[in-house]
Amino acid sequence: MPVQPQQKYADDHGKSNLFLALVPEREVALQAVETGREIARRYGLSKSPRPHERMHVSLNAIGTYPDFPDDIVFAVSAAMATVKAAPFEVNFDRAMSVTNARAVVLANAIRSEEMMDLHVQLAKEMWSVGLNFTYNPRFMPHMTVLYDDVPVPEHLLAEPVRWIAREFVLIRSVIGKSEYEYLDRWPLLD
């Protein structure tokens, strides 16, 4: 179940990276961090898990911009306000390293149809307002818990990491900093 790695370049430092994502509740994010610690201990990894505040499931990349793109944020916010989707369960029952990357991720062998439907709908809404969009027919949701050079074989977790997604968010990440800025949120309604 390969997941495509994202390339980071030195000349991207300081640029704004925008993306749409699901963010777990605090307790679930803390569980993901602890799961990352257990994986690191089990496989002798030298790196620590990402902070719980950065745990997320990327849905759609929007782009990388040299400055804060007010016009793009406004257009994305307007487009996402029209999205209609019900809450759904996110369930990651396994961990593995991503092919050709240093990421250790939580995933599920069975792709969530609800998450795939949301991924497609978000891409369509961005296209409808003239924005670039990402649509990947092989989209496999995952949550990166840590980065390490030692590969981790795919294995089942002792306890799955799961929650009910009730909203999706627009996140700004300044490349080279370890923080996210939540720019907007949209509820998933029944």
Percent in strands: 25-35%
Q: CATH architecture of the domain at 14-88 and 110-139 and 166-187, please?
A: Alpha-Beta Complex
Percent helix: 10-25%
Runs in which pLDDT lies below 50 for 5 or more consecutive residues are: 1-10
Chart the SSEs and their pairings.
Elements: E1 16-22, H1 26-43, E2 57-65, H2 70-80, E3 88-97, E4 103-107, H3 113-128, E5 143-147, E6 155-165, E7 167-174, E8 180-187
Antiparallel strand pairs: 1-2, 1-7, 3-4, 3-6, 4-5, 7-8
Q: Can you walk through the features of this model?
A:
The protein has 190 residues and is of the alpha+beta class. It has a domain at 14-88 and 110-139 and 166-187: Cyclic Phosphodiesterase, Chain: A (Alpha-Beta Complex). Helix content is 24%, strand content 33%. The protein is built from three helices and eight strands; from the N terminus they run E-H-E-H-E-E-H-E-E-E-E. It has helices at residues 26-43, 70-80, 113-128; strands at residues 16-22, 57-65, 88-97, 103-107, 143-147, 155-165, 167-174, 180-187. Strands 2-1-7-8 form a four-stranded antiparallel sheet, with helices on one face. Strands 5-4-3-6 form a four-stranded antiparallel sheet, with helices on one face. Strand 7 and strand 8 form a beta hairpin. Helix 2 packs across helix 3 (113-128). The longest helix is centred in the first third of the chain and has 18 residues, at 26-43. It starts with 15 loop residues before the first strand and ends with a strand. Residues 1-10 have low confidence and may be disordered.
